[in-house]
Amino acid sequence: MKHRIPSGLSRRDCLSVGVMGLTGLTLTDFLQAADSAELGNRTSGKSTADSVLFVNLAGGPSHLDTLDMKPEGPSETRGEFKPINTKISGLTACEYLPEFAKIADQFTLLRGISHTSGSHPLGQSYISTGNRPTPALQYPSYGSIVGKELGDDPTLPPYVAIPTTEWTAGYLGDANAPLTTNAVPRPGQPFEVRGITLGAGLTVAKVQRRQKLLAGLDRRFRDVETNSQLLEALDKFGEQAHGMITSARSRAAFDVSLEPESIQKLFGADELNQSLLLGCRLIESGVKFVTVTNQGWDTHLKNFDGHRRLIPPLDRGIAATLETLKSKGLLARTLVVIMGEFGRTPKINENVGRDHFPRVNWCLMAGGGVKPGQLIGGTDQGGTAPDESTNIKPDDIAASLYQAVGIDIHGEYFTTTGRPVMIVPQGTAIEGLFG
Fold first, then answer.
1. CA distances from 376 to 127, 379, 416 (A)
2. Minimal CA–CA distance to 191: which of 236, 254, 253?
3. Which end of the chain, N or C, is less packed with Cβ atoms under 10 Å?
4. Rounded distance, CA 429 to CA 34, Å?
5. Which is nearest to 395 in space by CA: 116, 48, 50, 68?
């Protein structure tokens, strides 16, 4: 009897969901069906991007003090920064964004993005998945889905987080979680990532010998076990880990010291810039989704001092990233996304800070088929809410991202209980975003 695999399951789903018992499948049935391409496909075949670089401004930058300034607004909400003109007609930016102002016409700026998830964990969950958070289900982040659908290189992780991330694989399971670097490169120095770079005293030859020993032990187990199918499946994961550790290409992908000096000097010595340098290198090497997390934007206290410190590195990093991707011929097929989980209150609090404000947020996009030089969406005169013509939700950002990489947002996965879940059921790709 030939069994039918539920649409949307992969080999990894088989292990993490435990679906065989529900369908009457043996693992052999499952692997044979997978090899004959009987599994559901969530890719549309149409894409404008092959990879994504997502810069997560964790904590939420103040929209009024960055890219949604209201110089004619009330004095009690205007803040301390002066606006400067940019290369996009009608757009002013904070005075601490001079490099961005020169290249603004290479981006599209989305303004007036709105939701109601006002805590950091919920806001991060929303912007990383495109699904409104719910205690009933933990949705997978973009990188987990992009990596699962597009990652096919056994020597490279498809999803890398620099240096760490709160984003998870949700119901897809840890097999689709990001590889976190847990550190940031230092200028001019080789960069080592634990789990990929060989440790002190450990050589490729030693790893190869260990692999042969494990293979021998596996054969012994197979001789004893009447059901060796699980061991055979686990071999596939072991082979991938072994391939990453012993691949010179994989280790070189993380070594920013190998970048030409002309590229290295574009980036500052700070953590954000060095993370972005690494992100560009990983994209060039074939990693499908890279997220760079830039902490510190939660400025309840001394908002303007905090933004004076945070904005200049972001300004330099944005310009360096675009220049690097362009010079390598990667920008046209790399979607660059820059945003935080929400904006900050127009009202300045008693600590000269601004508080959480999910009603208004912005997102910068470039490359990957994005039509440059656009302003999409807007906010009212005081920056307190989206204007009457704007209705953009995180779901729509997600739908746009997935459209760019050719993933069908209405494709389904199965949770551990066998429940089918659409990738982004409520989102719609933003009209006019792509050229």
1. 18, 11, 39
2. 254
3. N
4. 31
5. 116
In the chain, what are the domain boundaries? 1-40, 51-187+261-422, 194-253
- Residue 256 and residue 278 in contact, taking contact as beta carbons nearer than 8 Å: yes
Q: What share of the chain is helix, strand, coil (3-state, %, to 5)?
A: 40, 15, 45
**DSSP 8-state class, residue 170:** G
Structure tokens at 405: 């990489």
* Residue found under tokens 């127009």: 346
Question: What's phi and psi for 79, nearest 5 deg?
Answer: 85, -170
Task: Please name the residues in contact with 134: beta carbons below 8 A apart, sequence gap of 6 or more.
Answer: none
Residue 263 contacts by C-beta under 8 Å, 6 or more apart in sequence? Answer: 277, 280, 324, 327
| Pair type for strands 374-376 and 108-113 | parallel
Whole-angstrom CA distances from 94 to 62, 68, 85 are 11, 9, 9
**How many angstroms separate the CA atoms of 379 and 360, rounded?**
8
Q: What is the pLDDT of residues 285-313, one digit of tens each?
A: 999 999 999 999 999 999 999 999 999 99
Concatenating the DSSP letter of every residue in 119-159 gives SHHHHHHHHHHSS--BTTB-PPPHHHHHHHHH---TTS-SE
**Checking DSSP bridges between strand 356-357 and strand 343-344, what pairing results, if any?**
antiparallel
Number of neighbouring beta carbons within 10 Å of residue 402 = 28
pLDDT of residue 376 exceeding 80, the answer is yes
- Alpha carbons 232 and 12: distance in angstroms, whole number: 13
Q: How many CB atoms lie within 10 A of CB 285?
A: 16
Homologous superfamily (CATH) for 51-187+261-422: Alkaline Phosphatase, subunit A (3.40.720.10)
Q: Tell me if 426 sits within 8 A of 393, measured CB to CB.
A: yes
pLDDT at 35 over 80: no
CB contact at 8 A, 142 and 54: yes
pTM of the model: 0.84
Helices (H), 248-393: 248-253, 261-264, 271-285, 303-327
Joined tokens for residue 163: 């240096």
Percent of the chain at pLDDT exceeding 70: 78
Pairing relation of β-strands 289-294 and 343-344?
unpaired
CA dist 69 and 352 (Å) reads 17
CB 418 within 8 A of CB 404: no
